[in-house]
Amino acid sequence: MVTLAKRRPLSRRRRHAVFLVACVIALVAALGPLGASPARANSPVLTLTPERDPCDSQDRRATLRGLNFPPGLTVTLTAVRTAPFRSNNLNPLPDATVAADGTFAVEFELRRLSCGYEPQQPEGTRYEIDAEINRTIVATATFTVSGGGRSCFAETGSCAQGRFLEYWRMHGGLAVNGYPISDEFDEQLEDGNTYRVQYFERVRFELHPENAAPHDVLLGQFGRRILAGVSGAPSAPVPAEAGYTYFPETGHNVGPRFTDYWRSNGGLAQFGYPLTELFTERLEDGNTYRVQYFERARFELHPENAAPLDVLLGQFGRRILTARGPRAITLDPVSGPCQGADQQQVTVRGSGFTPGVSVSCSLRRERASASTAGNSASGGPPAAANGTSVRALPHVGCGPNEPVGSTLTITMAEYTPDRTPAVGPGASATFTVTGVRAAATTGATFSTAQ
Asked: What do you get for the CA distance between the two ends of the chain, in Å?
């Protein structure tokens, strides 16, 4: 028989210690492991759309959305580059006012960040967007520029993407093709068929899905088109010359420097066969150069430049795109907007603009007293694939109170982010206020009956 020893009762001090240990264990169980911060179910949350890489978005815009923010307050949104190095320049974004349900949504243009524009923001650039209330950061969203599928260029305000961007990078990039000066659009080409195309400063890329890569991207034969307007060019076939590369397909010789450039930058696929011998031509800048035409390019010899910039290419893409047709605009109402109530809306319809390039619309007023007033050009949406642009101006500032004799001019023009013309001149329509009903005249000029 085993006799159990009687347990001595715990002293008051030991009972108190056990009680404290139990309390600590219960508190740790409730709050989680020591050192961990308690979860806040209703903490403010900031998200970005598109979330993967807004620099790769088609429309060059992004949307910030807030959740669980204090209703009625103003949220200050600021972006800062954090990699590859942290910038000291803060990029202010539009402020947000929180709705009653604690949410907000703010859309902004990625040009505010120069985001996705080569080479300013290359692949791997990281951004942090902070949401602040009363100068306290309460939520953050981040993204990294991938640069994989789309690249935009601040110099012209246009982007290249997909197969065209891949071809551009693999076939000489900026030096050979120039910057993009349009977005992609469908165009009926010289063979009567319609293709997906994009214009660059020196070339036109054409997508031919019926061909296997790499021949699914072809270049327009701008050399042939431009050469047709050059008088006196030595285009007749000639015999082979010693020390030159001879092309029997067209019967022309190419000197050592041009041959080296031709072979190093894409050869036949990029430039085509030579169409002339080397000759002297006065070019667009008014100076004369030694040049040679190929099916898709014009080689220019610039001995004032060190190699490899001693050979440059003509900007045929710009010339061909500019020659698509004259730009023109019309007004609706056709009689001019000043013949109705004050602040009457006028619809401006433009044609002949570069597809995908932003079109600005501006108003200039010449008063009868010879004083001039007007508003500066404002950015607008890109022209449609058929080269048209439509803008509604709800506050043209004319009507019965406009002095008789005032002349108003509405102008549409293409623009780049630095407000310089992108391609070619703009188009204007004018009308004069007389205080009586206007009578339309021919063309894009509007006058009034006396």
From this structure: 134
- Specify burial of residue 203 (Cβ count, 10 A radius: 0-12, 13-18, 19+): buried
pTM passes above 0.70: no
> CA-CA distances (angstroms) from residue 71 to 44, 95, 394?
11, 14, 33
Closest among 221, 48, 224, 67 to 143, alpha carbons compared = 48
What's the pLDDT tens digit per position in 1-33? 445 445 555 566 666 665 665 555 655 555 554
pLDDT tens digits for 405-443?
A: 667 777 777 654 444 444 445 667 776 665 443 333 333
Contacts of 439-444 with C-beta under 8 Å, sequence gap 24+, read 439/335, 440/334, 440/335, 440/336, 444/328, 444/329, 444/330
Element (H, E) at 67: strand 61-67
Distances from the Cα of 34 to the Cα of 20, 31, 66, angstroms? 17, 8, 31
CA 289 – CA 268 distance, rounded (Å): 23
Q: How far from the centroid of its chain's Cα atoms is residue 119's Cα?
A: 14
> Where do the CATH 2.60.40.1930 domains begin and end in the chain?
45-144
CA–CA distance, 277 with 253 (Å, rounded to integer): 6
Answer CATH for 328-448 from 1.10.357, 3.40.50, 2.60.40, 3.30.300: 2.60.40
Q: Output the CA torsion sign for 142, 146, 150, 153.
A: positive
Could you give the C-alpha distances from 45 to 90, 95, 152, 375, in angstroms and in order? Answer: 21, 16, 30, 40
With CA atoms as reference, report the closest residue to 398 among 356, 359, 351, 446: 446
> Is 400 strand, coil or helix?
coil
- Written as one string, the DSSP assignment of 113-142 is GTTTBTTTS-TT-EEEEEEEETTEEEEEEE
Q: How many CB atoms lie within 10 A of CB 381?
A: 11
Alpha-carbon distance 416 to 276, whole Å?
36
Asked if 433 and 448 touch (Cβ cutoff 8 Å), the reply is: yes
